[in-house]
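Practice set, problem 2.
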Amino acid sequence: MTAEELKAFCKERNLTYKELAEKIGYGEGAIKTAVSTNNISQPMQHAINMFSKISQLENELKKANEAKEILKTWLNS
């Protein structure tokens, strides 16, 4: 992951570096340093990838629960 990719990741998700840092267990300074030096460590990259995957799975679960509620409502009508 490059600094530009990290910037794009944050922009796509409307996250500040501070918010991302909190979500992946890093300090804001670590994120800013990684971006400014274009040196995103493997552990940081892994944490970002896992955060992304968790977010994706949470969205899928939300959609499944919404579908479940619609089906329950429909079946009880």
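Problem 2, part (b): a different protein.
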Amino acid sequence: MKRKVASLTVVLGLFLLLVLSGCSSNDSKTSGKQKGNGEKMELVNEGKLTFAMSGLLKPLNYKEKNKLVGFDVEIGEEISKRIGLESNPVTNPWETIIQGLKGKKYDAIIGSMTATEERSKQVDFSDPYYISGAQVFVAASNNAITKKEDLTDKRIGVMQASTYQQDAEKYTKDIKNYPSDIYALQDLEPGRVDAVITDKIVGISAMKEANLKIKDVDNVLKNENIAIAVNKDNPALLKAINKAIKSMVEDGTYEKISKKWFGVNLLEK
């Protein structure tokens, strides 16, 4: 009888050991999804990095045959690959792009957004992935505006919800807002606006790509760090993005992408 009880005890012990072992295995799988510091990347779509842009900023981000292409898109694709996620670029109107991020419509904004102190109150920014500046552009035939001081009381076009609104307000109250920088630049030649303040790279590219008869005036109004925005409750994703940017720069991939679109390394400008 004692022998039977002892055997039963052994069997029960083995059973409990197997159960506990199984629980331990499940716990291990769960923690495997965590980052090394115990944080987990929060993703809108599992296995994908969903990142937003306006899709109206050629050659940075725009649509070609219904597909998003451009410098921003390629940067996002490379970052996604290095994080181990599928790239999923999407568009959103620029004036509500931060609200869309906070509303968890996408994981990040990779759309040539300037990292500003005001925006940093709402989102976290990565290390810059290119450096540019706010530039004044006028019609090629315009000889009345040759320096930034000539903007006083002139009609200036800017993209709505952009940082260029504040730059324009330093010179005039007559400001016209556009859904895209390109639309604003197209209004220079017919004289619907006297000047446009936009990203230097966007303006110079528009001269070549869209064959616009415009020219840049004076030096840049300010240098700008262009960065990737993520939600403040997603530090693991921010860390992964920064690591990806750093590795792209170090192994020469970043320079290759930059020179493909602009002929120069945008982090050296």
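Answer key, part (b): DSSP finds eight helices and twelve strands in the chain. The chain has two domains: 48-130+226-262, 132-224.
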